[in-house]
Amino acid sequence: MKLQKEKEDNFLSDTNEMIEISKRESYIQEYGIDPAFTPVYLSYNAYKRIVGYAMRYGSNDLPQKAWREVYGILIGSIKENKEVIVKDAIPVMVGDRAYVEYKSKHYVDTAQFNTAVYERAIQDDKEDFFVGWWHTHPGIGFIFSPRDIETQLFYQGVNPFAIALVFDHCQKESKSYYLGVAGIRLKNPDRGMFATYSNSIELKFEHTKEKMVKNVDKVVKEINKNMKDVLNEIKYIDETLRKRYLAQLQRNFGLIMVLKGDIKITDDEIEAESEDYYLYEWDPDINKKIYRIPKFREKIEKELKKCEANLSELNAEKKDLEVKKKKAKYKKKLNDMLAKPNEWYTKIMNDFTKRIEKISPFFDYLDTDERKIIEHFEERISEYSKVLDDLLSRSEFNL
Asked: Do 248 and 315 reside in the same domain of the chain?
C-alpha cells in the first residue's frame, strides 16, 4: 500500500514536471524567452509612488503594531518580449497588518484606471497597460502568502510577463535589497495554488540605487510633514463642501436630476443625495431608474420655454424692435433667477480650488478611497455646473 502511494506521488510529480517543461518550451517558442524570469525595469516615478504611499502605513517612525499592508497596480509596457518596463505604480488601498481586502469601489477604480490607460495609450500611440501589481510586507520580507499566489495567478494568467513588486521598509538600504523592493513571479502558474515562486527576479533601475533611495527619502519626508493637513483638506471637501454646501445649493436651487423618492438628507446633512452611491457601487439597474427634475430647475425650464415661444411668435411677425426689447427683458429676468445659484456655485468652486492647491503636490500618494472623495465632489459639482451653464446660455435667446 505504501509502495503504491509512493508510485502515485512520483507519477504525479513527473507529470507536473513534464507539463511545466512543456509550457515553458511553448513560451520560449512564442516569446523567445521564459516570461517567468524576464527582468523588470523600475522607473523612479513608480518607485516613488510605491514608497511614498507604503511608508504612510509602515515605517520606522510608526509603532510596529500600527504597520499595515497596502496594495496597488503597476502600469507599463513590455519591451520586445525581453523586459517589463514599470512606468507607474498606482496606490489602491490599505488593509490590515498582513491582509488587504478588495471592495466594490476598488474594482470600479481599477476598471476606470484600465480604461484610462487604454485610451491614453491609443491617443499617445503607446503600448501601456497593467503589467502587474505591488503590495507591501512591512517587516515580513519577500514571500508570497496563499492569497498573494491567488492574486498573482490572476495577473500571470492574463499576462505571463506580469510582475509582483513587494516593498518592505525594513529591508530598505540592506545589502541584498537596497531599495527595499523585490520582484516576484510564479515559476509554474499552471499548478494553480500549488505553484512555486521566485523572489529574485532581476530588477533594473532608472537611476543608481543610492540616488533612487536618496531622492525618495526626501519625498517621504515631505509626505510625513504634510499628509495630515492633506487628509484634513480631503475631509473638508467631503464633509463641508459636498455634504453641506453643495447639498444646500441643490436643496435651494436644485439643478441636478434626482431619483424619484430617493432624496435623503438628514438633519446633520450626512448625505447630499442618496443617488451619490452609484459613484462607488455598480448598479446593474441604473438605467431603469426614473429621475425627476428638481422644482427650481423645472421653474427655470418653464420660464425659458414660455419666453422662447413668445420670441418665436414675434420673430414670425417680423417685429424686430419688439423682439429686441423682450429679449433684454427676458434675459434679465432669467439672469436674476440664476444669480444666487451662480454666486453660490462660484464660492464653492473657489473654496474647492484652494483645497486642491494644497492636495495636488501629494495626489500621487493618495489611495482609491481618498481620490474618490475628490472625484465624487468634482463629479457632482460638474453636473451642477453643466446645467447652470446651459441655462445661462439659453437665457441669451439666440434663436
From this structure: yes
Helix (H) or strand (E) holding 330: helix 320-359
Residue 66 has pLDDT above 90, yes or no: yes
Q: Which residue has the cell 493618495?
A: 366
* Whole-angstrom distance, CA of residue 158 vs CA of residue 315: 64
Q: How far is CA 271 from CA 234, 242, 245, 293, in A?
A: 16, 8, 11, 19
Domain count, the chain: 2
249 with 371, same domain: the answer is: yes
Write the CB contacts of 19 (distance below 8 Å, at least 6 apart in sequence).
Answer: 190
Question: pLDDT (tens digit, 9 = 90+) per residue, 14-46?
Answer: 445 555 555 666 666 667 778 989 999 999 999
pLDDT greater than 50 at residue 273:
no
Please report the DSSP string for 205-227 in residue order.
ESS-HHHHHHHHHHHHHHHHHHH
Burial of 268 (0-12, 13-18, 19+ CB in 10 A): exposed
